[in-house]
From TrEMBL:
Protein name: Anti-sigma factor
Keyword set includes Cell wall biogenesis/degradation: no
Species: Cupriavidus pauculus
Putative zinc-finger domain residues: 6-26
Signal peptide: none
Length: 302
């Protein structure tokens, strides 16, 4: 069945009346995916005001605050969805989930905007790995010496990669750790559905020798295109995600970039686009990405 993330988010925020709370609790009791998603929303209720209370930030102009409040109000009015029946499916929209995330408090959005313009954080560039020249037909394995990731702006990436990056920010170590384990039946069904229904010829790599444990698999959609997501948890630190989407273009070598604290490794192989990403300092994601591309890791068997 379709899971209404907005309803789960409202439950986590304590905004539902008793009748709807009972419905959500019944859903969570019988649906592990809904339970995992609720745990994620519960874990994402961060004390933004407390975190920034001790920071020395310039005062936000009142005019800027008023303008942002007006924009938020207008956006909410335009985005209020009409109730409609939708076909039952186990595929969620990545674009929709990205749009449904909790709104940032107005004062914080204004402070971030003012700080970004004040620091001159405007960077231009093309799609990573899109330099002029013949595209490689093979992707190098993990033997080469990894290079330091290049820091780029998030709008440098293809839209689906940017959406995956935004979605990744929802995950914390605690929320992923609470997810139910992926069993053999679930994993087999996921791979079969990805291949037959989504037309994505994927394998789920066993990354245990890199210190990563598979915690979640999901079939998503981005602007009508199938996208699969594999979430791994390292021994320490935040989770790592591997996302795959059909890209009928030439192969592209593994490229490592960085956006703020997030490491983003992209490549294209056999008409599939890949992105491996996470906020991590303890793992060499570029090397792991190259080994995935070279199929140095075995298929996961549970």
């Amino acid at each position: 069945m379709t899971i209404d993330e907005t309803l789960l988010m409202a439950y986590a925020d304590g905004e539902l009346p008793p009748a709807q709370r009972a419905e959500v609790e019944a859903l969570v009791a019988r649906d592990p995916e809904a339970a995992a998603m609720l745990a994620l929303f519960e874990a994402s209720k961060l004390d933004y005001a407390g975190a920034f209370a001790a920071q020395a930030v310039p005062p936000v102009p009142e005019s800027l605050t008023r303008n942002i409040e007006a924009l938020v109000a207008a956006h909410r009015e335009q985005g209020a969805p009409a109730a409609q029946a939708i076909e039952e499916t186990n595929v969620r929209s990545l674009d929709a989930e990205r749009q449904r995330r909790r709104g940032m408090p107005v004062w914080l959005a204004a402070a971030c905007m003012a700080g970004a313009f004040g620091a001159g954080l405007v960077i231009r560039g093309g799609l990573p790995g899109s330099a002029v020249g013949p595209a490689p037909t093979t992707v190098a394995g993990g033997a080469s010496t990894p290079t330091a990731p290049i820091t780029v702006a998030s709008n440098t990436f293809a839209p689906w990669v940017k959406a995956a990056m935004d979605y990744q920010q929802l995950y914390t170590r605690d929320s992923v750790a609470y997810m139910p384990d992926v069993d053999a039946r679930h994993l087999t069904q996921f791979v079969d559905d990805a291949r037959e229904k989504d037309k994505l010829d994927i394998d789920v790599p066993d990354l245990s020798k890199a210190g990563l444990e598979l915690k979640s698999v999901a079939r998503l959609r981005f602007r009508g295109k199938a996208l699969v997501q594999l979430v791994y948890l390292p021994k320490d630190g935040p989770p790592i995600s591997l996302c795959v989407l059909a890209e009928p273009k030439d192969d592209q070598a593994v490229t490592a970039n960085r956006v703020d604290a997030m490491h983003v490794v992209t490549w294209r192989q056999a008409k599939l686009g890949y992105v491996l990403l996470g906020n991590t300092e303890g793992l060499d994601l570029e090397s792991i990405g190259k080994q995935i591309a070279a199929k140095d890791y075995p298929k996961l068997s549970i």
